[in-house]
Amino acid sequence: MLKPEKMVKISVVGPKEQLEYASETLYKVNLLHIEDPKEAEYFRIGEPLEKASLISRSLVQLRSYISYLKIDPSRIVPKRKYRSKEIEDKLSKKLEEYQEQIGRKIEENRSIDEKIRGLEDELRIIEPLKVLGIPSRLLKGYKNLRCFVGLVKENPVEELSKITDQFDAVIKEYQKELLVAIFVKAEYGDEFFRTLQGFGYRELPVPDIDDYDVRINEIEREKEELLNRKKQLETEIEEIKVKEAELLLAIEEYLSSELDKSELPLRALVSKYAFVIVGYVPAKQLDEFRSEVERNGKIVVEVIEEEEEDVPPTKLDNPAIVRDYELLTTTYATPKYKELDPSAIMAVFFTIFFGMMLGDMGYGLLITILALYLKTVFRTEGWQKLLNIAIYCGLSSILFGFIYGEFFGPFIIPGIEEPSKIHFLGDALSALYTFNHHHPLFDRVEEFGVKALLFIVLLIGMFKMLWGFALGFYNVYVEHGMKEAIYEKGCWFIGVLGLVMLIFGFSYNLGIFTSPPEEGFGHLLPDNLYMLGSYTVEEGKEVPLPIPGLVDGWQAGVNIFYVLALPLLIVWFVIFLKAEIPKMGIFGIIMAVELLTWFGQIISYARLLAIGLSSVYIAFVINYLSVKIGTPPGMALLPVAIILLLIGHAGNLLLGILDPGLQSLRLHYVEFFTKFFEGGGKEYSPFGRVKKFLED
Predict the structure, then answer these.
(1) Which of 59, 505, 547, 648 could form a disulfide with 561 if both were Cys (CB 3.0 to 4.6 A apart)?
(2) Is-above-0.90 flag for pTM?
(3) Residues of CATH 3.30.70.2750 domain(s) within the chain?
């Protein structure tokens, strides 16, 4: 589960005349990841089968129909599956029918659109000429006169008069511009044109029309007829879509398969008498693959030695529930073949982190219900995986919400304005907690809860950091050996472990180890569990009790962890110098500051606390304002309070989805993956496809 599936490099060899049979068989088996062929002395890359060109043209045509009809394969659940032989028998006839039923209608529809655009263009010319009020025959056809008809931004008469006063002009306002018709002797035509250009002159073509109103009515009538025919065509096309959608997709699937098979020679090496195909199959399915391919006794499957430069494809090997989280892993990068696959780790911690941050039963329930509904709408594989993750995160939020005692945030009672005082569940659901108290199992907003949760998230950060370096150690060891693994990853593991000890000391003195309150989970814990952190009072201040053999007072909590941390940090520094000095010389010492960045990344896990608290307090404010507005004496504003409650919680829910999701991804991609996960693997892509609308 933590490693990609083992692959075996094989060759498929057979007589040249068996290449088509090999193509059919390999496609059906759907296990061979074919490698790009490299030409040899007697072997050249093959050529597609003769039928490839015809199939390609038919497929392009069919896909254009599917695209025009807006048929989405992901939204269609087939009522039946077509047999390949059935499609093959009716293929030619159905393609002719589709050309007649769909192709011609598409062409007619496009022709109608072009005609409508032409009519609208003509109308845009005629309407201003109608406003001008001069018949079209008077606007053109002169020998000794130039007539300028068009639109200008300002009145040009004054400037034109400077050229000559022997011209006539008709000027009308039209859509924030001026519509002009100017008549002048031909000898002044060029000069007039240059002057008009300075006023933004745009010429209008003058059509041969006797009557503008008559032509406008004709255009409107023609346009209406065309639109009616267009609507009729769309109805006919929609009927075809409903009736033929599944068959269209089945034919598309069949043709796609046939094209893949006919183009297989392009991925094979062919000589005068034989062919060779090289690729990878999963090791555990090698026997199954061999028995199917060698069935006719003329084709041989051989396991071959991998060369140093070979890069096997990565086929992730995870149980069903983890496969959904492969989406998040591959979004970052595809693991290398020999690299650890973090999908299972992602599945556990991403879900926990999300629930820990949101931690509300109401929000979690809404997320789960919404995701279940959207699964019926978005049926593509990617969406299904993403929505499955949303369901798991919603359930995690419900669980943590039960622990925190939150249902759309803390409950609000007038006069009680602190969310740590009473929660939404309160007395009503106290029996669910088994304990006779009025608080949740773990109150994350009270002082102890904040301190304890801060300690928990930092502990998680320390654990994830050390785990990441341990996994990185393994990856480097597998690829480069023990020495490089110690220098590159083991060194930082020891250094971070030293930092962890210091953080424990800091947490001790922060009061994390003091006895928890009696409410919640506190009274279930053994009395001596927190003895190490028991506090006493000195000069009015609580201080940790001394640990035997060490300095009394405040220093007690620090010194014990210093004893553990100092040797670790010394060992880290020695290994670090041994690794960096040969590469960077004395300046390599500067890189030691990187240890502080790892410390900063541990602290970054505090966002698990911060994001959660922000969500709680936003919900608290929404509930508080709603109660204040909607309760007596302001009952008249109850509708406003309800609207505020709905909109407020909807917004908080949106933030509750985005923030925990993005922050959880960040904690994995930046703080965790960078310690061990390089990626850059080649995705396993076998020759063949899973059939949705066809069966063999």
Answers:
(1) 505
(2) no
(3) 118-221
